[in-house]
Every structure is written in C-alpha cells, then in structure tokens.
Amino acid sequence: MSTLKGRNLISITDFSKDEYIQVLDIAEDFEKNPKQPILSDKVVATLFFEPSTRTRLSFESAANQLGARVIGFSDPGATSVQKGESLHDTITMVSSYSDLIVMRNPKEGSSRYASEVASVPVINAGDGANQHPTQCMLDLYSIRKTQGKLENLNIACVGDLKYGRTVHSLVQAMCNFNATFHLVSPEELKLPSSVKMSVKNAGLKYYQYTDLKDVIATADIIYMTRVQRERFADPLEYERVKDSCILSADMLAGCKPNMRVLHPLPRVNEITVDVDKTPYAYYFQQAQNGVYVRQALMAAILGAR
Amino acid sequence: MDSKKELVVPRIENGTVIDHIPTNVVYQIAHILGLEKYNDEVLIGNYLTSQKFIRKGIIKVKNKFFSKEDLSKIALVAPMASIIIIKNYEVVEKHEAEIPDHIDNFVKCMNPRCVTNHEIIPTKFDVIDKENLKLRCHYCEKFVTKDTIRFCE
C-alpha cells in the first residue's frame, strides 16, 4: 500500500522525492492501461471556484477512467458560495458527500485551509498564484518519460519566470534531481530570489539569460511559458523584449536530439505553430500525461494503489 | 536597578518592565500590547541614555504579566528588548524577548489574495529566519519581513 493513502497534496513540498517517484511509477502503469475501475465505490468532488478547462477535465477524466463518480461545480455562481457561504462551511458539507476533494480557488492558501477543515483528503488543483502541484507532477512525468531519467538534466525555463507558478514548482521539484537551470526571461520577469535560493541551498547551479537562442544547444528540456503584456509597467519595454522568448522551428537546428519542449498551456504565440510538427514538441502529450498522473494520485491517496 | 534610572522612570512594585527597546518602536509596542486601554499605571520613557545602546526606550506596566503571545509580539518588533518581571520591587525574572518558531493568530498576512484576508481564519506563520525576521504564511506561503510586518486588529 502506498504511503500516500489519506494524504493531502497541497504544495509540491508536501511529498518527498521518493513519493514523487512512487506517483510517477503508478502513472506509468495507468498510461499502459488507463481504464481500471478501482475507484468504483468512491465519489470524487471537483470544486472549481474559478474557470479551468484543462485541469478540471483532466481530473474528471482521470476519476471517470478509474470508475469513480464525480460531483462538483465549475461555476461557483450557481452554488451557495454565491449566497455568501464560507469556504469552511462549503468544505465541511462536501466532505460528507465525497471521498476526495479536488479544489481550485483563486484565494491563495485556500487549499491548505480546506485540507485542515475537510474530513477527506484534498488535492490542490491551483490556489491562485500560489501552488498547482499536479501540474508539477505531470511536468516531472513528462521529463522522465522523454529523457528516461530525472537526474542530471539541463532544464531551461523560458518566459515569465517571476509570476509563473508552474516554473517555481518545477524548479523546486527538480532541485531533488541534481538539475542545472538555465533561466531565460526579460529583466522584469526574472525568477524570484526565494526560488533561486532553493537552487543555491540544494548546491545546484543556475544561469540567467535574456535571449532564448543562448540555451537551445545546451538544454535537455525547454520549459516555455507565456510573457504577458500586462506584466509590464512600460508597454514599450514589452514591445522591445516580447520576441526574445518566442520559440520557432528554425531556432531548433542545433538542439540536442533528446531535447523536448514543454509548456503548461494554454499557449498563445510563444511557441510558433511550426514547432508542433517537429519531433521536439511535447506539450500536447504533456497535457495528456496529466490524466495518468492524476489517476495515480487519486488511486494512491484513496488507497487503491 | 540603578538609582539614576529610577529618577527618570520610577520603579514599580509589581508588574513587567520592557527594557532596551529601540527608540523608534516604543509607541508601537505600547500599541500592540493594547496599553492605551490598560487601566493601571503605564510608564513610558524614550530616548533614555543606555549602556547597551546609545539611546533606548523603556515601558513599565504596573500589575501586568504578559502572556507568551504578547511577549512574542514584543520579540517580533524589538528582538533585543529585555523582559523583566518585578515582584515587591525585586527583579524575579529577566530574559530577552524570544521569537517563537510558529506564530499563530496575531500577525496579518500582507498578501491581499491570501485566504486569511477573505475568510474568518486565524493566521499562522512559520518563522524562517529569526535573525533577519522572515516569516512564511502557512496558507499562501508568501513571506512577511521586518519591514512589512503588521498585526491583526
């Protein structure tokens, strides 16, 4: 039986390195055989207090493929939350209707709080700009699947490294695996010092760049994120730097054969569509891997694996 | 207690003396301890000469023995302050204010998107760095530092 039975997953630091590996191994098994009705006696509640397409459908698909019943909402406007019900009361009530709660809520820290209130385990499906640990797990899964290992890789993170929570979690998680980080961003959107401190504390190295071209030959993984215009105080500055973090197929000429491009999606224009047809594009499979990873998490937490 | 100090801020028979307070936080400490509403003698001295510092503040509160939580608040604002317990004009206990490892329900999270600022939830912080005063919100995981610390009303 997994050590994850009955556990919450709120922040990427809630699990140990061995527990990440445990989840990835279980997910690998679900990839080979996704339809296993091992949760047919369970009810999973998906509480989405803000819109989400990919994450909600991925969780619901995962639960359905395991045979679980899914209850919940994707629009709090149609629930008692609209009437002013507290998060405490909503979670207490839903705990009594379900075996597992999956929650997305724009209030940062809301999932941690929900896990303290709920009588059933809680999986954080995103709490504002704070944490989105299942995205990180699926990123790890995708890295291991494409590289055959997690250790000793060159990870290039590109784009909005300041506000992008997926990058923060990925960097923190990859600190367990002796990664070298290549951080490409405009000056305004550099990785926060607290995350860089995690790298230093792990005794690992990071290098900072402003031009994506400088890391293509070195990287095993290029993890792309979107640079948003609204992050810039000066619109002219945005115009000046916006192209420095766009990846196109012609730029991939000198890359390593094992290199793969990841992106948490949705993409806008930071990866041009001509990259999609190259063997290096992996972002759509990455999203698909999210289903296997969420199956693994739900099965392990509910004690079925 | 030395007699010169007695002349500046009189002795108390029973109560607590908070000594060696940096001059810029004396009134803040009085405020966070709620001394404006305390119905007994409160003696406040500031910009007093000090051997330990060049200038210091001191607060003497008659017949008041502060809770552990109140002492933690003092430590967060003035970690070098001394807490002195007086009984029958004698010092019965003296120690520096001590920053605890965890702080529950009196520091406010300064992240406007933190759930503690939207629901009725007691705040919780882990102390990450006592020397430079860095706290991490248990919920939103954002940091509060010496410069941004605020207390719950």
Write the layout of secondary structure elements.
The complex is a heterodimer of chains A (305) and B (153).
Chain A: H1 17-32, E1 43-48, H2 54-65, E2 69-73, H3 87-95, E3 100-105, H4 110-117, E4 122-127, H5 133-147, E5 154-158, H6 165-174, E6 180-184, H7 193-201, E7 206-209, E8 221-224, H8 235-241, E9 260-262, H9 283-301
Helix pairs in contact in A: 1-5, 1-9, 2-9, 3-4, 5-6, 5-9
Chain B: H1 3-8, E1 15-21, H2 26-32, E2 42-49, E3 55-62, H3 68-77, E4 82-87, E5 90-96, E6 102-104, E7 107-108, E8 124-129, E9 134-137, E10 143-145, E11 150-151
Strand count, sense and barrel status of the largest sheet of chain B are: 5 strands, antiparallel
| Shape annotation of chain A | globular
Supply the CATH class of the largest domain in chain B: Alpha Beta
The overall average pLDDT of chain B, rounded, is: 90
Task: Please tell me the overall pLDDT of chain A.
Answer: 94
CATH architecture of the largest domain in chain B: 2-Layer Sandwich
Question: What does the radius of gyration of chain A come to?
Answer: 19 Å
Portion of residues within helices of chain A = 25-40%
Alpha-carbon distance between the two ends of chain B: 35 Å
Q: So how many helices of chain A? A: 9
Describe the structure in brief.
The complex is a heterodimer of chains A (305) and B (153). Chain A has helices spanning 17-32, 54-65, 87-95, 110-117, 133-147, 165-174, 193-201, 235-241, 283-301, and strands spanning 43-48, 69-73, 100-105, 122-127, 154-158, 180-184, 206-209, 221-224, 260-262.
Describe the structure using short key phrases.
heterodimer, A: 305 residues, alpha/beta, Rossmann fold, four-stranded parallel sheet, 9 strands, 14% strand, B: 153 residues, SH3 type barrels, five-stranded antiparallel sheet, four-stranded antiparallel sheet
